[in-house]
Structures are given as C-alpha cells and as structure tokens.
Amino acid sequence: MAKVVKFGGSSLADANQFRKVADIIKSDKERRYVVPSAPGKRYSDDIKVTDMLYACYEKAKAAGLKVGAYWFSYSESVDEAFKEAEACLYCLGGRKLDMPLYYDLEIDSVMERMTKSEYTQMALNFCSVIESAGYRPGIYSSVSVYQTKLDHSRLLRDGISVWNAHWSERCTIECDVWQYSENGSVSGIYGDVDMNLIYNLDVVE
C-alpha cells in the first residue's frame, strides 16, 4: 500500500513552502503519490496565484493587449490528455483568447515510454477538446521533439498552430511562433526571458 499526501493553500504559497513539502515527501519512501491543490495566500492581504493570473488577464485586455494561453502537460497516457484539456477549460472559465491555446509537451520520461504515434495522438486528443470548446489549438515543444516524437506534418495538416522552441540563429521547421532564445532581457523583468517571434500573424485575431 502506498501513501497519498495532499498539500494546498498556504502550504504551497511560496518557494520556501514548496521546499518544506519536498522534505516531507522525501522523508518517507512510501509517500509516492502527491495531490497538490491551488497555491494559497502567503499572508491575509496576499493575492492567490490563480487570482493573480485572472487579474493579469483583465488588465491585459483592458490595455488592448492580445492574449493567448499555455498549458504544461503532465499527461502520462494518451487518454489523460482529454482530462487535462477539461481541466484547462475549467481554469479558463470561458475567457476569450486572441491567440491559440498551446499545449506544452516536453516531459522526457513520458516521451520515452510512448511511440511517435501515441505521443502525437495525445497532442491531438487535447487539441480536439480545446477546439470543440471554441478555442484555437496549438502545440509548444522543441525542434527535436517535432522531428522525432511528434508528427509535425500531421499537426500542420490538421490546422494546429506550432510553437517551436529552437534556440538557434535560424528556425529549421515550419511554425507559427519561434522561440529563438532562452536568455533574452526585457526592461522591468528580473532575470533571463524566453524570446519569441510570431511568423504567422494569422494566429493573432
């Protein structure tokens, strides 16, 4: 029998709390399953991370900025992508997007267990649910994944937007968005910033 541990609220409110949670899990080898809920407040007047995201959305729209969304995949099977898509839609809460909703596929352990056909189907499953809800689907991954684990031509053929992470002097595959650097700089942001170019302006409404 394996132990299940659950953390949420103030126990996941900042980096220090995350470290405490990690220590708790590592202290007992039978604690193999972790159920995290949404991060909470660090203090009474704090803003939850989820609420902050919604606030950023409202402010961006009010300022006339174009807004898209991005969902990191933790799916470990083809069918789990359906559930992830439903969770993503729940978080969006019907908010309108001006750009595609991108599904980030890059966990090595999952890719190693799946064939190219299975991994591509996982991407398509997520995208089908997103599209049926009225959003434009997209996939974010690295050039090596598009070349070895995803059917790049199938994605393009099905009208799925491709966001390609390839930190190089030039982009080598067809894509709508190219992430060309991981160590750019933007005034007002501390630390390195990923830099992107939109090749196909049709992805922006």
Question: Topology of this structure?
Answer:
Layout: E1 3-9, H1 15-26, E2 31-39, H2 49-62, E3 69-72, H3 80-92, E4 101-104, H4 108-113, H5 116-132, E5 137-142, H6 143-148, H7 152-157, E6 161-165, E7 177-184, E8 193-198
Helix pairs in contact: 3-5
Summarize the entry for a quick read.
The protein has about 200 residues and is of the alpha/beta class. Helices cover about 35% and strands about 25% of the residues. It has helices spanning about 15-25, 50-60, 80-90, 110-115, 115-130, 145-150, 150-155; strands at about 5-10, 30-40, 70, 100-105, 135-140, 160-165, 175-185, 195-200.
What string gives the helices and strands in order?
EHEHEHEHHEHHEEE
Task: Give the amount of beta strand, in percent.
Answer: 15-25%
The whole-angstrom Rg is 19 Å
Number of strands: 8
Assign an overall shape. Answer: globular
Task: Record the strand order, biggest sheet.
Answer: 3-4-5-6-7-8
Let me know the average pLDDT: 87
What is the structural class? alpha/beta
Q: Considering DSSP H and I runs of 4 or more, what fraction of the residues is helical?
A: 25-40%
| Quaternary assembly | single chain
Number of helices: 7
Major β-sheet annotation: 6 strands, mixed
Properties at a glance:
single chain, alpha/beta, six-stranded mixed beta sheet, two-stranded parallel ribbon, 7 helices
What report would you give on this structure?
There is one protein chain. By secondary structure, the protein is α/β, with parallel strands linked by helices. The protein has seven helices and eight strands. The protein has helices spanning 15-26, 49-62, 80-92, 108-113, 116-132, 143-148, 152-157, and strands at 3-9, 31-39, 69-72, 101-104, 137-142, 161-165, 177-184, 193-198. Strands 3-4-5-6-7-8 form a six-stranded mixed β-sheet.
